[in-house]
Amino acid sequence: xxxxxxxxxxxxxxIAANTPVVLPLGVLEYHGEHMAVGMDTLAVTxxxxxxxxxxxxxxxxxxxxxxxxxxxxxxxxTGSLHVDAxxxxxxxxxxxxxxxxxxxxxxxxxIHHQSENFIAGMPTDLAFRFAGRQAVFRxxxxxxxxxxxxxxxxxxxxxxxxxxxxxxxxxxxxxxMTSEIVAEYPFDHAGVGETSLMMALAPxxxxxxxxxxNTGWYTETARDASGELGEKGVxxxxxxxxxxxx
Length: 246
Description:
Blueprint: H1 8-16, E1 21-25, H2 39-51, E2 58-59, H3 85-102, E3 107-111, H4 123-144, H5 157-163, E4 171-175, H6 179-182, H7 192-201, H8 227-244
Parallel strand pairs: 1-2, 1-3, 3-4
Protein backbone atom coordinates (compact mmCIF):
# COMPACT_ATOMS: atom_id res chain seq x y z
CA UNK A 1 0.00 0.00 0.00
CA UNK A 2 1.22 3.48 -0.84
CA UNK A 3 0.82 5.67 2.22
CA UNK A 4 -0.38 8.67 0.24
CA UNK A 5 -3.22 6.56 -1.21
CA UNK A 6 -4.40 5.06 2.09
CA UNK A 7 -7.69 5.92 3.79
CA UNK A 8 -7.77 6.33 7.59
CA UNK A 9 -9.39 2.92 8.19
CA UNK A 10 -6.56 1.31 6.21
CA UNK A 11 -3.98 3.18 8.28
CA UNK A 12 -5.62 1.98 11.50
CA UNK A 13 -5.62 -1.59 10.18
CA UNK A 14 -1.91 -1.35 9.31
CA ILE A 15 -1.14 -0.05 12.81
CA ALA A 16 -3.11 -2.90 14.42
CA ALA A 17 -1.32 -5.47 12.27
CA ASN A 18 2.11 -3.85 12.89
CA THR A 19 2.61 -3.79 9.13
CA PRO A 20 6.13 -2.70 8.10
CA VAL A 21 6.28 0.95 7.08
CA VAL A 22 9.09 1.47 4.57
CA LEU A 23 10.84 4.69 3.60
CA PRO A 24 12.97 4.48 0.42
CA LEU A 25 16.04 6.67 0.92
CA GLY A 26 18.37 7.95 -1.76
CA VAL A 27 20.01 10.74 -3.66
CA LEU A 28 20.14 12.39 -7.07
CA GLU A 29 23.69 11.85 -8.31
CA TYR A 30 25.68 11.54 -11.50
CA HIS A 31 25.91 7.89 -12.54
CA GLY A 32 27.85 8.23 -15.74
CA GLU A 33 26.57 9.28 -19.14
CA HIS A 34 24.55 6.08 -19.53
CA MET A 35 22.38 5.99 -16.44
CA ALA A 36 19.70 8.08 -14.70
CA VAL A 37 20.69 10.29 -11.77
CA GLY A 38 18.02 8.69 -9.56
CA MET A 39 19.65 5.25 -9.72
CA ASP A 40 20.32 4.88 -5.98
CA THR A 41 16.72 5.60 -5.06
CA LEU A 42 15.22 3.73 -8.00
CA ALA A 43 17.05 0.59 -6.91
CA VAL A 44 15.11 0.76 -3.63
CA THR A 45 11.71 1.75 -4.99
CA UNK A 46 11.70 -0.83 -7.78
CA UNK A 47 12.71 -3.65 -5.42
CA UNK A 48 9.89 -2.62 -3.09
CA UNK A 49 7.49 -2.71 -6.06
CA UNK A 50 8.29 -6.41 -6.36
CA UNK A 51 8.25 -7.13 -2.64
CA UNK A 52 4.86 -5.44 -2.28
CA UNK A 53 3.35 -8.15 -4.49
CA UNK A 54 4.09 -10.85 -1.91
CA UNK A 55 3.82 -9.19 1.51
CA UNK A 56 1.89 -6.39 3.18
CA UNK A 57 3.87 -3.15 3.26
CA UNK A 58 3.12 0.53 3.78
CA UNK A 59 5.46 2.32 1.39
CA UNK A 60 6.11 5.99 2.09
CA UNK A 61 6.88 8.48 -0.70
CA UNK A 62 10.62 8.15 -1.46
CA UNK A 63 13.14 10.65 -0.15
CA UNK A 64 15.45 11.56 -3.04
CA UNK A 65 17.23 14.55 -1.53
CA UNK A 66 20.08 12.98 0.43
CA UNK A 67 23.72 13.95 0.77
CA UNK A 68 24.96 12.89 -2.66
CA UNK A 69 28.33 14.67 -2.25
CA UNK A 70 30.38 15.91 -5.17
CA UNK A 71 33.08 13.26 -4.76
CA UNK A 72 32.28 11.69 -8.14
CA UNK A 73 31.58 14.81 -10.22
CA UNK A 74 30.68 18.41 -9.61
CA UNK A 75 27.05 19.47 -10.07
CA UNK A 76 27.42 21.62 -13.18
CA UNK A 77 25.60 19.86 -16.00
CA THR A 78 25.73 16.44 -14.31
CA GLY A 79 22.57 16.44 -12.20
CA SER A 80 24.21 15.73 -8.84
CA LEU A 81 22.09 17.43 -6.17
CA HIS A 82 23.68 17.52 -2.72
CA VAL A 83 21.88 18.44 0.50
CA ASP A 84 24.03 18.63 3.61
CA ALA A 85 23.32 15.86 6.12
CA UNK A 86 23.16 18.41 8.91
CA UNK A 87 20.09 19.90 7.24
CA UNK A 88 18.53 16.49 6.62
CA UNK A 89 18.67 15.22 10.21
CA UNK A 90 16.18 17.75 11.71
CA UNK A 91 13.71 17.07 8.90
CA UNK A 92 14.08 13.31 9.34
CA UNK A 93 13.55 13.58 13.11
CA UNK A 94 10.32 15.51 12.67
CA UNK A 95 9.12 13.06 10.03
CA UNK A 96 9.82 10.07 12.29
CA UNK A 97 8.07 11.83 15.17
CA UNK A 98 5.05 12.27 12.94
CA UNK A 99 5.00 8.59 12.02
CA UNK A 100 5.24 7.56 15.68
CA UNK A 101 2.39 9.90 16.57
CA UNK A 102 0.26 8.31 13.86
CA UNK A 103 0.82 5.02 15.64
CA UNK A 104 3.39 3.16 13.55
CA UNK A 105 5.91 1.04 15.48
CA UNK A 106 7.57 -0.93 12.66
CA UNK A 107 9.35 1.73 10.57
CA UNK A 108 12.21 0.95 8.20
CA UNK A 109 14.43 3.10 6.01
CA UNK A 110 16.14 1.36 3.08
CA ILE A 111 19.19 2.95 1.45
CA HIS A 112 21.63 1.99 -1.30
CA HIS A 113 23.77 5.14 -1.65
CA GLN A 114 27.26 4.82 -0.09
CA SER A 115 26.21 1.77 1.93
CA GLU A 116 29.21 -0.48 1.24
CA ASN A 117 30.47 0.07 4.81
CA PHE A 118 27.13 0.46 6.54
CA ILE A 119 28.40 -0.27 10.05
CA ALA A 120 30.60 2.84 9.93
CA GLY A 121 27.94 4.79 8.07
CA MET A 122 27.87 7.64 5.58
CA PRO A 123 26.19 11.08 5.83
CA THR A 124 22.70 10.25 4.53
CA ASP A 125 22.14 7.01 6.40
CA LEU A 126 23.75 8.40 9.56
CA ALA A 127 21.42 11.43 9.43
CA PHE A 128 18.36 9.18 9.31
CA ARG A 129 19.71 6.70 11.87
CA PHE A 130 20.49 9.52 14.32
CA ALA A 131 17.12 11.12 13.64
CA GLY A 132 15.33 7.85 14.35
CA ARG A 133 17.01 7.49 17.74
CA GLN A 134 16.31 11.10 18.63
CA ALA A 135 12.67 10.75 17.64
CA VAL A 136 12.19 7.63 19.76
CA PHE A 137 13.74 9.31 22.82
CA ARG A 138 11.59 12.41 22.33
CA UNK A 139 8.43 10.41 21.77
CA UNK A 140 8.93 8.16 24.81
CA UNK A 141 9.65 11.08 27.11
CA UNK A 142 6.60 12.97 25.83
CA UNK A 143 4.38 9.90 26.16
CA UNK A 144 5.71 8.39 29.40
CA UNK A 145 7.43 11.31 31.13
CA UNK A 146 10.96 11.68 32.43
CA UNK A 147 12.39 8.63 34.13
CA UNK A 148 10.33 6.24 31.97
CA UNK A 149 13.20 3.77 31.58
CA UNK A 150 13.93 3.54 35.29
CA UNK A 151 10.41 2.54 36.35
CA UNK A 152 9.59 -0.97 37.49
CA UNK A 153 7.45 -1.72 34.46
CA UNK A 154 10.62 -1.50 32.35
CA UNK A 155 12.49 -4.16 34.32
CA UNK A 156 12.28 -6.50 31.30
CA UNK A 157 13.92 -3.96 28.97
CA UNK A 158 17.06 -6.05 28.43
CA UNK A 159 14.96 -9.09 27.62
CA UNK A 160 13.03 -6.94 25.13
CA UNK A 161 16.31 -5.74 23.67
CA UNK A 162 17.52 -9.31 23.27
CA UNK A 163 14.39 -10.26 21.30
CA UNK A 164 14.33 -7.04 19.28
CA UNK A 165 11.02 -5.82 20.70
CA UNK A 166 12.28 -2.81 22.67
CA UNK A 167 11.26 0.73 21.57
CA UNK A 168 14.57 1.34 19.84
CA UNK A 169 13.52 -1.16 17.19
CA UNK A 170 10.51 0.97 16.24
CA UNK A 171 12.69 2.78 13.69
CA UNK A 172 15.50 1.04 11.81
CA UNK A 173 17.57 1.83 8.73
CA UNK A 174 18.97 -0.95 6.55
CA UNK A 175 21.29 -1.11 3.55
CA UNK A 176 19.73 -2.41 0.36
CA MET A 177 22.72 -4.72 -0.02
CA THR A 178 24.31 -6.39 3.01
CA SER A 179 27.97 -7.33 3.27
CA GLU A 180 26.95 -10.91 2.48
CA ILE A 181 25.34 -9.76 -0.76
CA VAL A 182 28.33 -7.58 -1.64
CA ALA A 183 30.56 -10.65 -1.25
CA GLU A 184 28.61 -12.29 -4.09
CA TYR A 185 27.47 -9.36 -6.21
CA PRO A 186 29.60 -6.41 -7.45
CA PHE A 187 29.09 -3.22 -5.44
CA ASP A 188 30.22 -0.23 -7.46
CA HIS A 189 29.23 3.19 -8.73
CA ALA A 190 27.75 3.13 -12.24
CA GLY A 191 29.77 0.04 -13.10
CA VAL A 192 28.68 -3.48 -13.90
CA GLY A 193 26.81 -3.97 -10.61
CA GLU A 194 24.64 -0.87 -10.55
CA THR A 195 24.10 -0.83 -14.30
CA SER A 196 22.93 -4.45 -14.18
CA LEU A 197 20.56 -3.65 -11.31
CA MET A 198 18.97 -0.89 -13.37
CA MET A 199 18.75 -3.12 -16.43
CA ALA A 200 16.73 -5.56 -14.33
CA LEU A 201 14.68 -3.10 -12.29
CA ALA A 202 14.34 0.04 -14.41
CA PRO A 203 15.62 -0.60 -17.94
CA UNK A 204 14.27 2.77 -19.05
CA UNK A 205 16.92 4.36 -16.78
CA UNK A 206 19.81 2.93 -18.83
CA UNK A 207 21.01 3.81 -22.32
CA UNK A 208 23.69 1.21 -23.04
CA UNK A 209 24.72 2.99 -26.21
CA UNK A 210 26.10 5.84 -24.10
CA UNK A 211 28.43 3.68 -22.00
CA UNK A 212 31.35 4.41 -24.33
CA UNK A 213 30.79 8.15 -23.79
CA ASN A 214 31.97 7.77 -20.20
CA THR A 215 35.40 8.94 -19.12
CA GLY A 216 35.42 7.98 -15.42
CA TRP A 217 37.33 4.86 -14.32
CA TYR A 218 34.35 3.78 -12.24
CA THR A 219 32.19 3.15 -15.31
CA GLU A 220 34.67 0.93 -17.18
CA THR A 221 33.02 -2.33 -16.11
CA ALA A 222 29.55 -1.14 -17.17
CA ARG A 223 30.23 -2.68 -20.59
CA ASP A 224 29.80 -6.10 -18.94
CA ALA A 225 26.40 -5.29 -17.44
CA SER A 226 23.35 -7.41 -18.13
CA GLY A 227 19.80 -7.81 -16.95
CA GLU A 228 20.57 -11.40 -16.02
CA LEU A 229 23.29 -10.34 -13.59
CA GLY A 230 20.96 -7.68 -12.22
CA GLU A 231 18.28 -10.28 -11.52
CA LYS A 232 20.81 -12.26 -9.48
CA GLY A 233 21.37 -9.20 -7.31
CA VAL A 234 17.65 -8.49 -7.04
CA UNK A 235 16.98 -12.03 -5.81
CA UNK A 236 19.53 -11.67 -3.01
CA UNK A 237 18.20 -8.25 -2.05
CA UNK A 238 14.64 -9.58 -1.85
CA UNK A 239 15.75 -12.43 0.42
CA UNK A 240 17.46 -9.91 2.69
CA UNK A 241 14.42 -7.61 2.87
CA UNK A 242 12.05 -10.49 3.56
CA UNK A 243 14.10 -11.23 6.68
CA UNK A 244 14.32 -7.67 8.05
CA UNK A 245 10.82 -6.40 7.25
CA UNK A 246 9.00 -8.47 9.86
